[in-house]
């Protein structure tokens, strides 16, 4: 068994769930096992099933095939509300006024 964590955060709260998973568990499987839907009932369940995932801040290209190692922290990323380039451009426009 491997000890891992699954983390998800909203602007006002976060949840880190510790799990013991069998060797060979993928990042996506760990997110499913964590049951984040119960901790965040206001979000649609697809939020967790389709979200981008990372391990310790490094985005995973294919979370369905990345096998976890002991001590990994799987992070569930929320979609961006606004494109970072658009936000930067908007801030620059406000500062010029």
TrEMBL record:
Database matches in Pfam families: Ub-RnfH
Domain of life where this protein originates: Bacteria
InterPro entries named in the record: Mopterin_synth/thiamin_S_b, RnfH, RnfH_sf
Family the UniProt entry places it in: Belongs to the UPF0125 (RnfH) family.
Protein name: UPF0125 protein HALO32_00479
Lineage: Bacteria, Pseudomonadati, Pseudomonadota, Gammaproteobacteria, Oceanospirillales
Gene for this chain: pasI
């Amino acid at each position: 068994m491997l000890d891992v964590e699954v983390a998800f955060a909203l602007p006002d709260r976060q949840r880190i769930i510790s799990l013991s998973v069998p060797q060979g568990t993928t990042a996506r499987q760990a997110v499913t096992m964590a049951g984040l839907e119960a901790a965040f009932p206001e979000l649609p369940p697809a939020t967790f099933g389709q979200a981008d995932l990372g391990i310790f801040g490094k985005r995973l290209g294919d979370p369905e095939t990345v096998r976890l190692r002991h001590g990994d922290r799987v992070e569930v990323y929320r979609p961006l509300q606004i494109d970072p380039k658009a936000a930067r451009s908007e801030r620059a426009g406000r500062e010029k006024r």
